[in-house]
Write a structure and sequence with these properties.
Elements lengths: L1 H17 L3 H6 L2 H26 L3 E4 L2 E4 L4 E4 L7 H13 L4 H32 L4 H28 L10
Antiparallel strand pairs: 1-2, 2-3
Helix pairs in contact: 1-4, 3-5, 4-5, 5-6
């Protein structure tokens, strides 16, 4: 039953975000757009550093775009790549799903950190794909790495349900 509730909450939020107009509503406020750009930059900076200094790819950067040299293509880390939707989705899931608030107060930010690190990892992997398998980039971006967010969120939720939130209330037999 818990998995069904998880799926309903995740799907409902996804629908609310795109079809229900939540993102459009939030974009009307300058603060949200600024936050989206800030978060895109927070994904871009460590990804670009890792790709350049650890992997050793030659690249130039401008704003939040990685340009791979010589003329190997580019990856733009824009507002949609910021991870904000997934942050809100995680927050929405954890607020609606049962559990003690004392534990939620540390588990929600921890989950957001994991989502952020996964997003940086995603950009790094996309960089490798762009250099070595450019024909596969769009498929892997859209159908593997984007849905991977939901795998990570699901695994964190399973950890919450099974280990973190504590045992369920047991009925007392009379």
């Amino acid at each position: 039953m818990d998995v069904a509730v998880f799926a309903i909450i995740i799907y409902a939020f996804h629908w609310l975000w795109w079809t229900g107009g939540l993102k459009g509503f939030l974009l009307e406020y300058t603060g949200f757009h600024e936050l989206e750009l800030f978060m895109a930059n927070q994904v871009f900076m460590p990804s670009a550093w890792f790709v350049k200094h650890v992997i050793g790819y030659e690249l130039n950067t401008y704003e939040t775009t990685l340009y791979f040299l010589p003329d190997k293509g580019y990856i733009e880390v824009n507002g949609s790549c910021s991870g904000l939707k997934q942050f809100y989705q995680w927050l929405f899931l954890m607020i609606l799903f049962p559990g003690p608030w004392k534990k939620k107060l540390w588990y929600i930010p921890l989950g957001m950190l994991v989502i952020h690190l996964e997003n940086i990892f995603r950009i790094i992997v996309l960089s490798v794909i762009l250099i070595h398998w450019p024909d596969q980039w769009h498929f892997l971006h859209d159908w593997v790495l984007r849905p991977f967010f939901y795998v990570v969120i699901f695994l964190m939720w399973v950890l919450w349900v099974e280990k973190v939130r504590g045992s369920k209330v047991h009925k007392v037999k009379s």
